[in-house]
């Protein structure tokens, strides 16, 4: 089992790779058979590192300036809990929602499982209503 410092370093490297758009760095951070669980995005079935990269590319196509900031990281055993702030401007379609030019800012939480020194699994959740409201996609 990796120690807490090694896991924290892994999480920091993930944050840096996502925010710099250097997805090739994920090869050393994320397991090849990485799985992402997320009720908020049922159309994205992530069952590999390449699927995860494709999810991140899709997200960046919708929000090219997105920044994810891991505000809190808590490590216990082979798990790392994160509380993250996401900020970005919708410049591309998001599912059926055309580009709005609006900024979003919301928090999300997740738990990573680490195996053999890499991120192997992620459970993540957020409030879609907050995002849809900020994009003006909810009728009043």
UniProtKB/TrEMBL annotation:
<dbReference type="InterPro" id="IPR032710">
    <property type="entry name" value="NTF2-like_dom_sf"/>
</dbReference>
<dbReference type="Pfam" id="PF07366">
    <property type="entry name" value="SnoaL"/>
</dbReference>
<keyword id="KW-0413">Isomerase</keyword>
<protein>
    <submittedName>
        <fullName>Steroid delta-isomerase-like uncharacterized protein</fullName>
    </submittedName>
</protein>
<dbReference type="GO" id="GO:0030638">
    <property type="term" value="P:polyketide metabolic process"/>
</dbReference>
<dbReference type="InterPro" id="IPR009959">
    <property type="entry name" value="Cyclase_SnoaL-like"/>
</dbReference>
<dbReference type="GO" id="GO:0016853">
    <property type="term" value="F:isomerase activity"/>
</dbReference>
């Amino acid at each position: 089992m990796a120690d807490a410092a090694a896991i924290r370093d892994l999480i920091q490297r993930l944050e840096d790779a996502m925010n710099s758009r250097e997805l090739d760095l994920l090869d050393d951070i994320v397991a090849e058979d990485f799985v992402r669980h997320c009720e908020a995005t049922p159309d994205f079935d992530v069952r590999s590192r390449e699927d995860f990269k494709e999810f991140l590319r899709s997200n960046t196509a919708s929000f090219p300036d997105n920044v994810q900031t891991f505000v809190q990281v808590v490590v216990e055993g082979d798990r790392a809990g994160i509380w993250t702030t996401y900020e970005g401007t919708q410049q591309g379609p998001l599912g059926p929602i055309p580009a709005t030019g609006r900024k979003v800012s919301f928090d999300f939480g997740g738990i990573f499982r680490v195996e053999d020194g890499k991120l192997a699994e992620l459970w993540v959740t957020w409030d879609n209503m907050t995002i849809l409201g900020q994009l003006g996609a909810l009728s009043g």
